[in-house]
Write a structure and sequence with these properties.
mainly beta, Rieske Iron-sulfur Protein, 4-stranded antiparallel beta sheet, 12 strands
Length: 128
């Protein structure tokens, strides 16, 4: 996975967060008690940007429906099966960098239908 410069280290104070776009993806970068974290900035419930919410005690509360996520682990409080994607972070040469996976290319509807007709599992290819 390639490292991407996200923002200057000095821009993120302790116990704060910033929502940014890195490599065309929404990322929420936070610093809690001196520790850097990066998670996807999109709530899995309805797509609301989490950066519009409130952070307190190491958690971000979604402004849409008030789901709370741990900024270090991405886990939704009270639901171990709902987890935000987390990304490794580092500080190098005064920049906060995020290690993002290579973007995946979405399959066309035709490709998905042909795979389904062949009996392949396409559940990961479609959103229901």
């Amino acid at each position: 996975m390639p490292w991407h410069q996200a923002l200057r280290n000095a821009e993120l104070t302790d116990n704060s967060f910033i929502g940014i776009r890195v490599d065309a993806r929404h990322v929420l970068v936070s610093r809690t008690d001196g520790e850097l974290h990066a998670v996807t900035n999109v709530c899995p419930h309805n797509g609301t940007l989490l950066s519009g919410g409130v952070a307190k005690e190491g958690c971000i509360t979604c402004p849409g429906h008030f789901w709370r996520f741990d900024l270090a682990t991405g886990q939704k409080q009270g639901d171990p099966n709902t987890v935000l994607t987390t990304y490794p972070t580092q500080v190098r040469a005064g920049w906060i960098e995020i290690d993002l996976p290579e973007p995946t290319t979405a399959k066309s509807l035709r490709e998905i239908l042909l795979a389904s007709a062949r009996g392949e599992d396409v559940r990961d290819e479609v959103s229901l």
